[in-house]
């Protein structure tokens, strides 16, 4: 007997990113040259099948609340910036590139938002 399990999950590995409450973070997503003009987007979670419908931001709408998407078509990388981070922003994210045929292409990121930096550390930075 052969059992095939189809799971709605993505990506062999994910990029780990850390930041602090109140700070900002950038999630970079690389894509192949043939997708230069395709729609790019990012969503929370690890489910490719619902990612586009639940997109936090897309390349059609480059600014949305605390999110901003920039697409560098020369280096084939789009970047999503998130500002005013809270610990609720921690978790899994999927970068998606929409394809007209077949499944969209995804890469994964794990974001960890830590508590605010100590007052002493913030004073040194300013």
UniProtKB/TrEMBL annotation:
Q: Does the keyword Chaperone apply?
A: no
| Alphabetical list of Pfam families matching this protein | V-set
Q: SMART domains, per this entry?
A: IG (SM00409)
Q: Which UniProt keywords apply?
A: Membrane, Transmembrane
**Gene3D superfamilies in UniProt:** Immunoglobulins (2.60.40.10)
Q: What is its main location?
A: membrane
What subcellular locations does the record give? Membrane
The record ties this protein, via InterPro entries, to: CD300_family_receptors, Ig-like_dom_sf, Ig-like_fold, Ig_sub, Ig_V-set
Q: Which residues form the Immunoglobulin domain?
A: 14-114
GO terms assigned for molecular function: transmembrane signaling receptor activity
Q: Which GO terms describe its cellular component?
A: plasma membrane
Which ranges form a coiled coil? none
Q: Would you say which domain of life the source belongs to? A: Eukaryota
Name assigned to this protein: Immunoglobulin domain-containing protein
